[in-house]
Amino acid sequence: MRILLVGAGGVGTAITRIAARRSFFDSMVVCDYDLARAEAAVAALGEGGSRFAARRVDASDQAAVAALLREERCDVLLNATDPRFVPPLFEAALEAGADYLDMAMSLSSPHPERPYEECGTKLGDGQFARAGAWEEAGRLALVGVGVEPGLSDVFARYAAEELFDEIEEIGVRDGANLTVEGYDFAPSFSIWTTIEECLNPPVVWEKDRGWYTTAPFSEPEVFDFPEGIGPVECVNVEHEEVLLIPRWVDARRVTFKYGLGEEFIETLKTLHKLGLDRTETVGVRGVEVSPRDVVAACLPDPATLGDRMRGKTCAGTWVKGVKDGAPREVYLYHVVDNEWSMAEYGSQAVVWQTAVNPVVALELVADGRWSGAGVLGAEAFDPRPFLELLTAYGSPWGLREQ
Questions:
Q1: What is the per-residue pLDDT across 331-342, written as a single tens digit (0 to 9) for each?
Q2: Distance separating alpha carbons of residues 348 and 219, to the nearest angstrom
Q3: DSSP alpha helix (H) spans, 77-130
Q4: What is this structure's pTM?
Q5: In this structure, are residues 81 and 60 in contact, taking their beta carbons and an 8 Å threshold?
Q6: Short-list 83, 82, 60, 67, CA closest to 4
Q7: Beta strand 374-377 with 140-143: parallel, antiparallel or unpaired?
């Protein structure tokens, strides 16, 4: 397998460090708009980087990406950029006859008149609309395969196959007790993506109603996270799992709630009030700039915060239903301790936890245990090989009876 990795930020760099320890691929070409960043990711691998090379590419330039895929004879494009670049990268892979994998899907847009009741364009709609073309080409677009979405979806499929006869609700629940020394406000993941997720109308799935939306930060609940993290208030947030899981897993309700904390929520609300969450450019002293890009530029790069971070992050899937005629409730989860990920890989916990899952998925595709054509999520495949391989990578998952 020859891999074109587009994006050498925090997640992309963590991907190279994880993949360098695996033998399933022949080469990985690490690409970024900033060539120096791609070169730094490869150089950091030292003697373990003989299968890696750095190239420059503009992720928004579909033709250039397709040409690079052909030039490097790559079998698959791994998209480690933010969701703005999903459409050109997704189409470039199809154009070049390559498979495709991403960790976040094409962006949504709210309903023009009833944004907090009805869906407009949903996350991933643009990609699912092209499923027929991918099937016809016999190529696989494996979408939403980070940690959330991704591992959380694998957990949902595993619960449906192994743990339940009937499922009432699947609820992805994400929480952490991470702190960053020296900063009053320093998100541990891309603020651009976080704003997109948290200020868009959250989507809920109900079997009798389909997909519908609510107001941002709705339906707060306190969820008790494992391994010492403890209780964290979680709220509804727009996320791909709610759009993916119901396509392959039978459940009466699907939700996603994120443990943001009161301070984080108030900061996001303030950004929205001031219009600083906007992606449309505004004129500033003769220069057109995006307010959201300015916010991102003013905050520290999450990939550089690992030495200042303390604590753990938890991603998981809570499932409620019936097994053998009796009620059952479980939480399947994956915890990463920042101290461990920094010591073992030099990557902070949140980006490492996101990065490990696409590498696992690519290994399953490379050895044929996951195969198919079209636009498919992780829950479309057998979950057992994924969970077994994740454990073999040295990062086991857990199951707690609620």
A1: 999 999 999 999
A2: 30
A3: 86-96, 125-128
A4: 0.93
A5: no
A6: 67
A7: parallel
